[in-house]
């Protein structure tokens, strides 16, 4: 694909993300219109509609875009590092590890505050990633896509079980975090995003800086070594980027699944395999997917809302099965 066409796709993705953010701000259970939204920014009058737009819907749209972009970009990095088309923060247990540490902090140590949640999520994500790679690397064959997937599934199941056990023992905490554990951007305040945004931004920057190195690594580790690439350092920095992106996303919205699986495949299909284009385009598509899922979540069982994690699971599960069957058929 020519560079001009790739730029066109990026611009189209930006416009699509902005449009979905505007739709997210305008539409919901409380009736508002485009005119009311415009007036809330030009002449804020503290009416209920203006308060809903400024304090609920605008932060929600920004958070959905940031979380979706982060999960998609982390999925790209993980799939390249592991050479596993099913790799993502959810499938490899990173989301579950981050969620478990947050629940431990809340139920055992009675920790509150998004800044504390962010650090707990980062520690949990890093610990889960370490366990998955350590288990997947054991044995003579070393790290293989199948072993990594199985190790990730086992770690995800373990942390999920521990999380459920803690919540069963603490009913008050169960009520507080149940909606969060399903993955949701409802009711999140802008302060939650601003507290975690530096970590997400650092993850985005690291990912984009790694793009050229990931292109070389994708050709195989032997080729990368022959070209002088410091593979150990690249993997370490990539792991840090994944922890920042996935941990920050979980700290804000809980463990939202399947975004990191779906989007990288769509991005490569549309824009090619060059990570210098795949990473930013995946970020835009991830933001669009989560925004669209969040808008849909408001209308499925209105006046109640479905957690956005349920919506992404409904979209992503068939795609996951398709990728898994395709991979098995190719073996």
How would you characterize the overall build of this protein?
This protein has 331 residues and is mainly α. The chain contains 13 helices and no strands. The chain has helices at 3-26, 34-42, 48-82, 94-107, 114-137, 145-169, 171-181, 190-217, 221-226, 231-253, 259-271, 275-297, 308-330. Helix 5 crosses helix 10 (231-253). The model has no long low-confidence stretch (mean pLDDT 87).
Number of strands: 0
DSSP helix count?
13
SSE class:
mainly alpha
Unreliable residue stretches:
none
Note the main sheet. Answer: none
Average of per-residue pLDDT values: 87
Structural Rg: 20 Å
Percent in strands: under 5%
Task: Using the alpha-carbon principal axes, give the shape.
Answer: globular
Cα separation of the termini = 29 Å
Q: Which H/E pattern describes the elements?
A: HHHHHHHHHHHHH
Helix content: over 70%
Q: What is this structure's SSE topology?
A:
Layout: H1 3-26, H2 34-42, H3 48-82, H4 94-107, H5 114-137, H6 145-169, H7 171-181, H8 190-217, H9 221-226, H10 231-253, H11 259-271, H12 275-297, H13 308-330
Helix pairs in contact: 1-3, 1-12, 2-3, 3-8, 3-10, 3-11, 3-12, 4-5, 4-6, 4-10, 5-6, 5-10, 8-10, 8-12, 11-12, 12-13
């Amino acid at each position: 694909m020519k560079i001009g066409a790739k730029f066109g796709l990026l611009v189209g993705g930006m416009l699509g993300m902005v449009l979905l953010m505007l739709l997210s701000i305008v539409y919901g259970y409380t009736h508002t219109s485009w005119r009311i939204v415009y007036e809330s920014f030009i002449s804020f009058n503290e009416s209920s509609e203006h308060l809903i737009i400024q304090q609920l819907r605008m932060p929600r749209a920004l958070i959905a875009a940031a979380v979706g972009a982060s999960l998609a970009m982390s999925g790209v990095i993980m799939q390249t590092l592991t050479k596993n088309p099913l790799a993502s923060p959810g499938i490899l247990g990173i989301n579950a590890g981050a969620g478990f540490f947050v629940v431990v902090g809340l139920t055992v140590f009675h920790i509150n505050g998004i800044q504390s949640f962010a650090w707990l999520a980062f520690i949990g994500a890093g610990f889960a990633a370490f366990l998955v790679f350590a288990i997947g690397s054991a044995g003579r064959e070393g790290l293989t896509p199948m072993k990594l997937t199985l190790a990730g599934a086992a770690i995800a199941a373990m942390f999920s079980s521990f999380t459920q056990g803690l919540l069963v023992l603490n009913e008050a905490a169960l009520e507080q975090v149940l909606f969060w554990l399903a993955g949701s951007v409802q009711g999140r305040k802008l302060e939650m995003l601003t507290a975690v945004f530096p970590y997400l931004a650092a993850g985005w920057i690291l990912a984009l800086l790694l793009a050229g190195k990931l292109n070389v690594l994708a050709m195989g580790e032997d080729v990368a070594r022959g070209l002088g690439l410091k593979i150990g350092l690249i993997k370490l920095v990539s792991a840090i980027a994944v922890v920042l992106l996935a941990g920050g996303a979980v700290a804000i919205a809980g463990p939202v699944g399947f975004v990191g699986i779906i989007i990288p495949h769509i991005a490569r299909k549309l824009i090619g395999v060059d990570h210098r284009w795949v990473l930013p385009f995946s970020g835009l598509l991830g933001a669009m997917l989560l925004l669209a899922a969040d808008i849909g979540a408001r209308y499925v069982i209105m006046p109640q809302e479905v957690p956005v994690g349920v919506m992404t699971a409904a979209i992503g599960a068939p795609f996951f099965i398709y990728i898994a069957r395709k991979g098995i058929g190719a073996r």
